[in-house]
Amino acid sequence: MQNLAQVFNNHILVVALAACFIAQLSKLLLYAVQHRRFNGRVLIETGGMPSSHSALVTALATGVGQSLGWDSPDFAIAVVFAVIVMYDAAGVRQAAGKQARVLNQMIDAFFREEIEFDEARLKELLGHTPFQVIIGSVLGVAVACLLQGG
């Protein structure tokens, strides 16, 4: 139990997780405003505005830079990690989502004759647009600056 308490005493980790949580909560609020209804599933789904992945990794990198120095090897590692995660969110996962959308359309067109097809539809909202990644990154830096005091 003491080890768990030590984990939550890691201020950089707490700040990064807070940024991720705030981003996910923002998705819930944006969804409620846009669709005029509450959908709790938004809290656990990938994709959408803002990118919680970007918020998490930029808050982590910012916290490391503030705590250990902007010229530290730890900050360099955190930045490289953040860039890879954000590139993946906006690149690879976004492309996979587009492919899923096309495959779903093909399946819909192919089975219009009401042939039973019991496979689940592919998840289309996997990644983020570059704008969603940028907004998530800005959110992550802002949360880190506000909670770290830097």
* Uncertain runs: none
- CA-based gyration radius: 19 Å
Mean pLDDT metric: 83
Number of strands: 0
Strand content: under 5%
Largest sheet: none
Distance linking N and C termini: 31 Å
Shape: elongated
Order of helices and strands: HHHHHH
The computed structural class is mainly alpha
Compute the number of helices: 6
Helix content: over 70%
What does this structure look like?
This protein has 150 residues and is mostly helical. Helices cover 70% and strands 0% of the residues. It has six helices and no strands. It has helices at 2-8, 11-35, 52-68, 73-90, 92-110, 130-148. Helix 3 runs parallel beside helix 6 and helix 4 runs parallel beside helix 5. The longest helix has 25 residues, at 11-35. The chain is elongated. The two termini are 31 Å apart.
How would you concisely characterize the structure shown here?
With 150 residues, this protein is mainly alpha-helical. The chain is built from six helices and no strands.
Which keywords apply here?
single chain, 150 residues, mainly alpha, 6 helices, 0% strand
Strand and helix layout:
Layout: H1 2-8, H2 11-35, H3 52-68, H4 73-90, H5 92-110, H6 130-148
